[in-house]
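In response to reviewer comment 3 from the previous cycle, which asked for concrete evidence that the modeling workflow produces usable outputs, we include below a single protein chain processed end to end. The sequence was submitted unchanged, and the resulting structure tokens are shown without manual editing.
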Amino acid sequence: MQEEYNPDDFVELSKVELSSETQELMEKASAVYAEHFDTSATAGRCIFLSWYCSIADCDFCYRSVIKHKQGNPKKAKRSMGSVLLEALFSKTFGWPLEFITGGLAIMPFPELVEHIKTISEVYGEKVWINLGEFSESQIEELRPYVKGVCGSMETLHPTLHDKVCPSKPIKPYSDMFKKLKGFRRAIAVIVGLGDSYSDIHYLLDFIKEHEIDRITMYPLKPVKGSPYSKGPTTDEFLKWVARVRIEFPTIEIVAGTNLRRTEECGLYMKAGVNAITKFPLLKEFGNDSAKRVKELIEGAGRVFTGNISEEVDVDWVSVINELPIDGEYKKQMLDTMPLYMEKFGGKKKLKVLTHCEC
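The workflow returned the following structure tokens.
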């Protein structure tokens, strides 16, 4: 029996025991999902523009622990080449971009617009952003490149939120959502920060009030040095997910995972999830863990879309040169490509991923 989730252990499916309440919720959630969605499911990813954040007191976040990564936004900013390559890989392999993110106040707004614009050009469509609150004029400037805005709410329990994220109040996000017109709305929350299941009404009320179209739900992955030492059990997390699906039949639900929680992916589908995120797609591409994710999702009756396990042969130089972006950005992508080739499945996919030494 899985009595609690230890972040240092791998979840074993054979040891997961679901309560009768959770099983009942999942059966209802699965039926609701089937009424409103097709059988497809996939694995997506987000793209970080920077490892910096202007606030450092969200107590669950690694930035609140690793102080040296907070001080200098310029040093923490990722290169345009690496960011654009990740957008290109996502497009090529059919990985949905969950959102563009990277902390608050990571760069001047004009520079941020340039990043988002160029990512959308490489990816071939408008993108989601999760970069804090924006004014109405800023949102308008982003409109040509952005289809949806996400707010990382972490927890909607008012007093708990004040404790967990003292410098990131709920109200500014609430106000922003109410002013958004012509954009899809999303939130990201973490299960395991201290909310009990009886507190889920705070989350449900926020979704209803702000007409949220999509929610990303993460099971807490404790960071060493933070006040947290364990995350939610499989049973606890599934109960939250299934309840959201039942209450909001047409909302898009994305569930976070990691290598240690891979075995839960099939159960996520049965709880009414549309897609997973946070699986290390680059590092694990083609490896046994990626094949296992696909197997579990398909075993739950879904059709897996996107490529996380099949070898491909792409002339990346030609693909990059054909992109509708500035030549300098293309050069940065080509210069960065060798580093990324080593990331795919731990180097073993290097030869099948490129025709040339670039």
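Strands lie at 40-43, 45-48, 97-101, 127-130, 146-154, 184-191, 214-219, 252-256, 275-277, 303-305. We consider this sufficient to address the reviewer's concern, and the full set will be provided in the supplementary archive.
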